Amino acid sequence: MRPPRGCGGGGFRGRSDGPGDRGRSFGDGGRRDRGGRGPGKGHRVGRGRGGMKGGSKVMVEPHRHQGVFIAKGKEDALVTKNMIPREVVYGEKRVSVKNEDGTKIEYRVWNPFRSKLAATILGGVDSVWIVPGARVLYLGDASGTTVSHVSDVVGPTGVVYYKNDRLLLQSFCDGQEKP
């Protein structure tokens, strides 16, 4: 049995390539020994996507900004009500919650690392002028991550106009006075 790290033990542990190198175990084909700490980086244990689980474990509360919600479960997450249930836009996680009357409502998790607007909302901005029923002009929709959630926020009574055209943005910026 090997003593825990940091408690002595010494002995030959394979070749060393210099300070900070933990050496190699024999027979590992040149890969580094993980020391019994599970699979290496990039290797998944088990199956499934993980993340938020729906049902009775998750409770959804309205956020102070209209049309945005907080899913409280094992991990809290910013979510928007999915306008088209069972539809995934960019591979986001979904959470389904049962109402008191037994109907299911589906929410889409809004990742603040993929959307600056979501990060701003989580950061505590005072007001987001995107509310249910609003008409929104969204310039620069790139991959559609944020604009799809903005569409969820404005709902079926609102409209989102979007354009991802660098020439349009460049001509808009060229027309502005420079300080």
UniProtKB/TrEMBL annotation:
Keyword annotations: Methyltransferase, Nucleus, Ribonucleoprotein, RNA-binding, rRNA processing, S-adenosyl-L-methionine, Transferase
Q: What are the subcellular locations of this protein?
A: Nucleus, Nucleolus
GO BP annotations listed: box C/D sno(s)RNA 3'-end processing
> Record's Pfam families?
Fibrillarin
Q: Name one GO cellular component term.
A: box C/D methylation guide snoRNP complex
Q: Does the keyword Transit peptide apply?
A: no
Q: Which domain of life is it from?
A: Eukaryota
Disordered, as annotated region:
1-58
GO molecular function, one example? histone H2AQ104 methyltransferase activity
**Extent of Gly residues compositional bias:** 1-13
Amino acid composition bias (Basic and acidic residues), ranges on this chain? 14-36
Q: Does the keyword Calcium apply?
A: no
What InterPro entries does the record point to?
Fibrillarin (IPR000692), SAM-dependent_MTases_sf (IPR029063)
Q: Which family does it belong to?
A: Belongs to the methyltransferase superfamily. Fibrillarin family.
The name on file for this protein is Fibrillarin
